[in-house]
Every structure is written in C-alpha cells, then in structure tokens.
C-alpha cells in the first residue's frame, strides 16, 4: 500500500525535474587559444644549459576575469558575445600562449609560477588590459602591459603591447578567431622584446 502512494509523488518529481534548470545552458562549443609557435615535441631543456623565464598569469579587470567574451560598444558600456565562452579564464589561456611563444622564439626554458621558486631566471608579469571586441571599429583588441625583471637584476622594464584584428561579425566563431590572432601577435612581440 505504501509503494502505491509513493508512485504518484515520484512521477510528479520526475516531471518537475524536466522543468527545473540550475544555471544556464552551456554554449555549443568553448573557445581556446592556440599558439602559432611552440617548442618541438620531444625537445629537452634544462635550467643547467638554458636561460629560464618565469611567466606569471597576468592580472585582469573584472570584465575579462570571466570566461565570456566582452564587447565594448562605448567607453562606458560593455556587453558579452552571445554563446561565446572560453574554456577557462582568458588570463590563464594567454599566459600559456605567452609561454609557448617565448619558449619557441627565444630558446628559454619557460617556468610556471610554482616552478619559478627554484630558479626563476627572468620574470614576466603584467596586466591584460583588453581581451575584447571593439564594436565601433569591428576589431578584436588585445592589450598587455608587460613587466620584465631581467636575470640577476632588480630593474623592472615595462612595455605596452597591443594588437587589433578586424572581425567580420560579432559572434562566437569570428570573435574566437580574431582574438586568437591578436593574442598571437602580442605574444610574438613580447618574445622579441625579451630577446634571445
């Protein structure tokens, strides 16, 4: 008799489960950054023979601390590209892209924050100011304020890098492609600034 009474209750719960949503629907795909330059697979490096550099994850403003793609329609207005979402926060993706590019172009052994405690060598940090789509100009904009401490010095060098890449539309696919291209341009300029 008890089993018969619980069946309608279970059926009601099952029907409601199809109506209740926790969070938003995930986008059809997630965006990533891919480096145009990378250390060759199987290449071995050692801090005994290669100079090292520690690449720190850049600081970011709140508008790009999230996994969505911001669109600036004016100096005081921000929206986000519909259905565009990074697989992880852009600052971490950009730091990894910087590391890949610096390692490939300079021959340095690139260390992450935790590895850099042993032999940091040079230290690259900074602020990712823009990782956005600029609606009025229809461009993807990546602006990175870099700070470099050269090995065996206490001197800090700073430099602003920026790349702008045209976008044909403000949508998931166009934004991802253009931001990836702009991020790679900035990474190449940073690596060349650091030098061999």
TrEMBL record:
SUPFAM superfamilies: XCC0632-like. It holds the Pfam family ABC_trans_aux. Gene3D superfamilies: ABC-type transport auxiliary lipoprotein component. Residues 1-17 form the signal peptide. Keywords: Signal. This is Cholesterol transport system auxiliary component. Residues 38-191 form the ABC-type transport auxiliary lipoprotein component domain.
């Amino acid at each position: 008799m008890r089993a018969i009474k619980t069946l309608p209750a279970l059926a009601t719960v099952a029907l409601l489960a199809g109506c209740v949503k926790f969070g938003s629907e995930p986008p059809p795909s997630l965006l990533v950054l891919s480096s145009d330059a990378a250390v060759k697979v199987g290449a071995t490096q050692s801090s005994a023979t290669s100079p090292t550099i520690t690449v720190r994850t850049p600081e970011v403003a709140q508008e790009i601390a999230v996994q969505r793609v911001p669109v600036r329609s004016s100096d005081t207005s921000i929206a986000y590209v519909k259905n565009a979402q990074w697989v992880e926060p852009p600052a971490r993706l950009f730091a990894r892209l910087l590391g890949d590019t610096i390692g490939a172009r300079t021959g340095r052994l690139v260390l992450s924050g935790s590895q850099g405690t042993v032999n940091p060598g040079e230290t690259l940090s900074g602020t990712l100011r823009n990782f956005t789509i600029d609606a009025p100009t229809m461009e993807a904009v990546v602006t990175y304020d870099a700070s470099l401490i050269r090995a065996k010095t206490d001197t800090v060098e700073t430099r602003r890098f920026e790349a702008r890449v045209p976008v044909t539309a403000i949508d998931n696919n166009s934004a991802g492609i253009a931001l990836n291209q702009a991020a790679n341009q900035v990474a190449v300029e940073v690596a060349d600034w650091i030098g061999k």
